[in-house]
Amino acid sequence: MGKFVNNIEEFFKFCSENEVKFIDFRFTDLKGMWHHVTYNIKAVNKDLLANGMPFDGSSIDAWQPIHKSDMILKPDVPTAFLDPFTADSTIIVICDVYDIYENQMYEKCPRSIAKKAVEYLAEANIGDVAYFGPENEFFIFDDVKIIDSVNESYFKVDCEDGEWNDAKNYEGGNIGHRARLKGGYFPVAPIDNGVDIRAEMMQVLEQVGLEVTLGHHEVAQGQHEIGIVFGDLIEASDNVQKLKYVIKMVAHLNGKSATFMPKPLYGDNGSGMHVHQSIWKNGKNLFYKQGEYGNLSDIARWYIGGIFKHARALAAFTNPSTNSYKRLIPGFEAPSILTYSSQNRSASCRIPYGAGEKATRVEMRFPDSTACPYLAFSAMLMAGLDGIKNKYEPIGPMDDDLFELSLDEIRDRDIPQMPHTLRGSLEALIRYNDFLRPVFTKKMIDTYQHYKFSTQVWPYEARPTPFEFKTMYSC
User: Fold this and answer.
1) Can you give the pTM of this predicted structure?
2) Any catalytic annotation for residue 135?
């Protein structure tokens, strides 16, 4: 799969061959959400694609003030792909954001930050490419109800394969075959009732240029995963945006609702975004050294050490929602203990089994899909490069089942942990962000942490919950 066009000339030829009527220009905000503006193809020429389109940056959360609102969308033409969901032939082009006031790529544009991270990798003279392979887990629900008001707080999600529906009356009868709590990993149909919808998702993902490897039911009820091939930092980030769009839309068109929310179900596994990473130079994998533990080189080990050293601040980008920390609880395949291990899924960093240089990589298991992929991958790269520069040694390897350790045992063995709340990660980011500063500006970091406090932390902390009523109302 891969690119459909390489330059502007090929772009217009591709549009003509596919009778394209509209061009949809898309860009990513600080939350990782896609925004778009659609142009009639008659209004788009080579100059517009080369110079960009104006838009209002003040209408995007935490971006520009209204008196400096004019910004430019710069299309990255080789990212173009046909939208598989529109009634009229439409081509999507991913864009970067340009700051006309500073005459440079916008410091709050996540994709522009990712490009700066790639440049920094080369300038650091460590490697020439960083590969990222995210695994985005997700849930598919049949019904979602939400109330969030002054005197009432409520949510209810439902899916046919949830065990809570064992006694529900269905037209035609109750099928009875369901994955039980934490029992959904790899069952065949009829327990796995997502075979057809995942197959449809996998085929549409191929249509938009992603190379799909596998699909399966995950551990939790209603939970799924579709695997795609890794790419460089920018490509991998673009692919996450495309994957989330396709999965949500295919579910929507089938009368269902897909979510990448980390922990929508209490007591069952949550959804992560495990991220496989490696750095290469001149076609050689710098993370590989045969015969060492997990075939890891010193560079790979120091890279892990850098991520662990900065993990608490890093979590503000890799786990950027209050819901993220409901997933990071030992015992649900969501490791919060900062050590590494070969093939051990209870460690925050797993060294996957693989033979030879090409397969050697590290897998960070704590991130989730509420992360903006451009920011999360860039931040992990910067932390890892800082680890290589300073030769930080991570704690480990530890091959025990870390989920069996008590909190006292974790403390006695002096094993660091991920932060337990979004507030904790943001406060760490405020205190320790020098490792990011070659790529993330002070203004961007300040804006980001203020935005997360005001839209996530403070509203969350101010709300009473049903659990609080259940446990404290009669006190």
Assistant:
1) 0.96
2) yes
180 is catalytic: no
Question: Between 233-253 and 110-123, two packed helices, what is the crossing angle to 10 degrees?
Answer: 150
DSSP secondary structure string for all residues of 4-43: S-SSHHHHHHHHHHTT--EEEEEEE-TTS-EEEEEEEGGG
Catalytic residue among 206, 216, 345, 393: 345
Among the listed residues 111, 274, 312, 423, the single catalytic one is 274
Peptide bond into 65 cis (omega under 30): no
Strand partners, 340: 349
Q: Which of 29, 99, 107, 135 is catalytic?
A: 135
Structure-token pair, residue 96: 């970067």
Q: Measured in Å, how far apart are the chain's first and last C-alpha atoms?
A: 61
What does each C-alpha distance from 224 to 141, 142, 213, 319, 420 come to in angstroms? 11, 14, 14, 20, 26
Compute CA distances 425 → 51, 383, 417, whole Å. 39, 15, 11
d(CA 316, CA 318) in angstroms, rounded, equals 6
Q: Is 171 a catalytic residue?
A: no
Spot the catalytic one: 96, 99, 192, 218: 218
Query: Concatenated DSSP letters for 47-72?
Result: HHHHH-EEEEGGGSTTS--GGG-EEE
Give catalytic status of residue 192 as yes or no: no
CA dist 300 and 150 (Å) reads: 50
Answer yes or no: 365 catalytic: yes
Q: Say if CB 224 and CB 194 are below 8 A apart.
A: yes
For 21-36, how does the pLDDT look when each residue is reduced to its tens digit (9 = 90+)?
Answer: 999 999 999 999 999 9
Q: Does residue 282 sit in helix, strand or coil?
A: coil
The residue from 301, 365, 423, 427 that is catalytic is 365
119 a catalytic residue:
no
Tell me the pairing of strands 22-28 and 90-99: parallel
Give per-residue pLDDT as tens, 85-120: 999 999 999 999 999 999 999 999 999 999 999 999
Query: What is d(CA 351, CA 366) in angstroms, rounded to the nearest whole number?
Result: 14
Angle between helices 298-309 and 373-390 (to 10 degrees): 120
| Amino acid identity for residue 450 in this structure | H
- Annotation says 361 is catalytic: no
